[in-house]
């Protein structure tokens, strides 16, 4: 009988606990939040954000902004995931199509559910690449028939646009890889478009992102051209007399660069663009904010170096060979 009594007491205790938990949950509610105005609208990027006014009585699990070309956007569309350390959030919307209307709103969720802020619409800029009008450009064509502007800097002739070929110059197709897991396990030449967005404006302006194995082939660039080495990159700044300053290399204006140094003048005509990056885990980032370009270090090199341009700085670092970076080509010297 005593055992039966104790068991009954435990059952009653657990039932009471469940009722208490249910009541506590009922006291909570979904968050309340605002959406900030959309700012710094470029051709393929914009910035927005929001603020959580009331967390709903329980911790925020995740928050950010979501956007789409249809009304209303939800977290099943494109979204950011921002730090939950603060009620305010600031987000970069990237991989947008030029000249397109978008809808955006902040979101936040807790254990009760998901809430959205007010919806805001905006339209991305429509325009072309801004080359240096005071310089004379040449041209070169790749095996796919893409034509690129070229510029002579010192004794070298450079592409003034990012490479976008889908084949090596012997006609061998390069693997187009969209899946994150597949990208991270790749050990052969591979490429992708930023955010797997193959819209013509995005491809034409930013070009493709290639892994190091594509560079390693030595036939990624058009015949008679190659991926520049470290000295060839740094010789540009030496020729101009401005060390490590990317403003002499980058496109001017705010059409593509969201936070460009106002001193930028594209003096070289190279017109570098912030084409972003794809990390070894397959995630994309930095479109509109920074660009990276592979440096050729030899096919047997254990290192894979790349130039990084972010704001006004120009740096070179060693990176994982599975990373996806932009490529510029330079003409072979006779």
Task: Describe the structure in brief.
The protein is of the alpha+beta class. Helix content is 16%, strand content 29%. Strands 3, 4, 6, 7 and 8 form a 5-stranded antiparallel beta sheet that branches. It has a 3-stranded antiparallel beta sheet with strand order 1-2-5, with no helix packed on it.
Name the features.
single chain; 334 residues; alpha+beta; 3-stranded antiparallel β-sheet; 5 helices; 21 strands
Detailed description of the structure:
The chain has 334 residues and is α+β, with helices and mostly antiparallel strands. The protein contains five helices and 21 strands. The chain has helices at residues 2-27, 180-184, 200-206, 212-216, 230-240, and strands at residues 32-35, 45-54, 62-68, 78-79, 88-94, 101-109, 114-116, 120-123, 138-141, 147-153, 156-159, 175-176, 190-192, 209-210, 225-226, 275-278, 284-287, 290-294, 305-310, 313-318, 330-331. The strands form seven sheets. Strands 3, 4, 6, 7 and 8 form a five-stranded antiparallel sheet that branches. A three-stranded antiparallel sheet has the order 1-2-5, with no helix packed on it.
